[in-house]
Input
Amino acid sequence: MKTDSLLKKYYQQLKVLRAFESTGAALSWDRETWMPIGASADRGEVLAVLAGFHHDLATDKKFVALVDELFEQRENLDPIARRSVTVVKKDLDKSVKLPKEFVEETQEITNASHHAWIEAKQTNNFALFQPHLEKVVENRKKYAALLDPSANAYDVLLDSYEEGLTTAYLQPLLAELEDGITELLPKVLKAQASRKDLVNPLDQHELDIVKLQTFIKDMLSQIGFDWSRGQMGSVEHPFEISISPNDVRLNTHYEKKQHSFTLTGMVHELGHGLYEQNGDPKYIEAGLHHGVSLGIHESQSRLLENFIGRSIEFWQYFLPQLQKHFSQLKSATPEQVSLALNKVSPSFIRTEADEVTYNLHIILRFELEQEIIHGRLAIKDLPESWRAKMKDLLGVEPTTDKEGVLQDVHWSWGDFGYFPTYTLGNLNAAQLWNRFTKAHPNWSVEVAQGNFTSYFHWFKEHVWQHGSFYTPQELMEKATGEKTKAEYLIQYLNKKYL
Amino acid sequence: MKTDSLLKKYYQQLKVLRAFESTGAALSWDRETWMPIGASADRGEVLAVLAGFHHDLATDKKFVALVDELFEQRENLDPIARRSVTVVKKDLDKSVKLPKEFVEETQEITNASHHAWIEAKQTNNFALFQPHLEKVVENRKKYAALLDPSANAYDVLLDSYEEGLTTAYLQPLLAELEDGITELLPKVLKAQASRKDLVNPLDQHELDIVKLQTFIKDMLSQIGFDWSRGQMGSVEHPFEISISPNDVRLNTHYEKKQHSFTLTGMVHELGHGLYEQNGDPKYIEAGLHHGVSLGIHESQSRLLENFIGRSIEFWQYFLPQLQKHFSQLKSATPEQVSLALNKVSPSFIRTEADEVTYNLHIILRFELEQEIIHGRLAIKDLPESWRAKMKDLLGVEPTTDKEGVLQDVHWSWGDFGYFPTYTLGNLNAAQLWNRFTKAHPNWSVEVAQGNFTSYFHWFKEHVWQHGSFYTPQELMEKATGEKTKAEYLIQYLNKKYL
Output
């Protein structure tokens, strides 16, 4: 068959697969927002049926043969088709190497492990989780061996979350970052000593949620979100989900008084949302419209949340608008809000960590994950190693496992190799930010005036429009002239916090 | 193969089909509530892909053979399986008789017709709609001929909305009802002459929607809705939709001031919702859990909305609760609210009609539909016939087609034979109500005290629990001892309005 007609068939099958993916996303969003609790089992059954169809379609022999044939002819394909076929071929090769029994076994092991983790965390009892985590680790080793028996097992895991990521690349990067932060941290703590009891004026009052949502919607519009192609939702844990490029949903969590968490959470999700809304439509057909990787996606959310959304200038513009809705906040100043949002203080919980100490939490996990996957650390000794590393890296030591090794959900689902993408996001953010601020040195003046045009256009041009057309590191090189480095984040943190 | 293993395979396939149906319902609900407008085309594509899979699965040759084999063995099946196979077989027989080209043609004709209708209604220009409606009518005749060339074409259409419904059955029923109403109406109008300018005290103030939703949620709980298996939504046109028996969504429309519409609308949808929430779970596997027909479903919504929800006793209980949320309403009395909700006045628009004149709107449509389908009335003469019949039946004549023949969406979608199910719903409601009130003569005292136990249990026992296990008329006979008759509605209206 001719390449053109092969490609037509291939795109047709991608469209069908995309319909199932879009459906899965819509049903997942609904589950987290509006689905009544009593429908959990029914929804589970529906999602399982749809996932089965998706799997059968994606691994259908005819489709596999089609992809193989196109892959062989890849030099004759236009660049978009070539990248599409390469990405799909990589996924298919994985599916081929993983026997069905292994996939089912993985599902069973991680389901049981996740449930054990919930109970272990609730009761602060690591022993409940330990045998399950041991099985999960064995399963992850097996997974890596099945995919590439000759490779470094942890590298195989890393690559499954971030295309092309390796230990050899990460190690020096994170070592440099660790040095930078441990040098900076005591200075910042000394400088911020007087701010110890600082409370955010946004967290002092109960605010009407509907009014708060009205403000948020308006704020996000002004930064560049297109509500005719998006929606917001109220959820337990904030997240962004794309049902289609024209249906991007930003979800945050509302508390009675912790409104700063709601607001920064929404600005974070907006970063993800702008990336998803602004891919070039020419990539849709080839399935390359969505953001390319966790590490690039997280750079967009962290940059908007931390670099812009916690600045004084941001609140110089938006606080007066918020005060118009809520007279209770009238005595708050942008300086107070921004200072409180940038308080640095080593603590136990990663998700509550400030910008400076956050990456130390990730470095801890990166080191422990390697020890575990390479069999140098027994799971039974993990809580102790965790505490020791916390003391070493952050100078604080949790007294309970709940605040220590049991705090994150990731390992319970078998997500070893995922955590580094968070720090990668921070590194990418700082490196892109360095370029952006060089191109637009007036950014802070603009933001203080509510002018997000430079921000929007620079990131659309250099990141968002490209979807998944480039690999993460190609994108970084194209946008900044170099691969991800540590120095920009260290520079940024030094400049901001000293 | 043995019956048992055939049945197991059959139920397995029903489960898969149900997953697609549930997905379709969830995506439709989302489209009407939360989906951003910009995602319309994407959602349309997704729904088309899913509908294609559902169609292929439902008409899959192996499945058809399986159903045929089970149908032949139906005497050996348990009663639930027998009813299930009978219903599915009937649907499959239809699919077999309708060629794919005809189905596609129907889609095209009705899509074009629906769009023409929107424009025609907006611009009050029947001529725009006329050629499309002509095609729709030809298409419906063809549909009836394909399904059963020897039957009365209008009967075939009726049966596709209400199992077993025929002109011969409906004609005398509606004639009797017409007589009853035309005798009653002038008396009611005379008795209500003083109420001409009566306004509903619930429609005098702008009320906070969030507070109103809180009240509605609480009101519906007290009547018997289980919110752990349901949700509410805000929509343009109120409707109920079941995503699963444990996920029933009630949707109403909010206006700045027309709160009585919102409240009666929600009580109406609650009637549908209670029916869907309270089917016996033993019917789920066989796909017989949902309400059996439009005529029975509508009886449950109309009964709760009109017979209970517009009574003084209902508002004696709920108005004080509403007043607790809204001090603006403190001078309203249950009598004022109930009187306003039961004002009778012949008008042009069916959906705004009162309980007495409503069925005259349906009788008009029933008569015109027969004329049209049997070729005795040309579409070009339809507006004129409409006006003449309005004058004849209701004593009022619309000056525009917008308020006349163009008011309803149904014909634009090809739904000829649908309207009678609305009146059937009213007749069934009155007949069931007659039985219920004989069993529970104290119902009004109970309702005034907020006690809905008798109501809930009687309807659960006699209607809701049975799902689709009985045909509509079997259900009516089982619940009331006789098939649907006209006298109970006439009695009810006479008693209530005189």
Q: What stands out?
A: Chain B touches chain A at residues 15-16, 19-20, 22-23, 26-27, 30, 33-39, 41-43, 45-46, 49-50, 53, 210, 226-231, 233, 243-247 (CB under 8 Å). The radius of gyration of chain B is 23 Å.
